[in-house]
Amino acid sequence: MNKQRRKEIEDLHDNLQNLLETLETIMEEEEEYKDNLPENMFNRIEQSENAIYSMQEACECITSAINTLEEIE
Question: What single string gives the DSSP state of each residue in 5-33?
């Protein structure tokens, strides 16, 4: 692999890492929001839990992509 493509992959890796950090921050904020909702707001709690679950799955996918990029020599 030439230097230019290696640099592009490194940049992509960095972008994915930044994306992961941003998504994790949003997910933490959503968890805090959910934890502070009164129990009588069941629908909002459920929506929040679904959003958190989806964000967790997205984080796992991004982490997998980062790990795969790290395997490229």
Answer: HHHHHHHHHHHHHHHHHHHHHHHHHHHHH
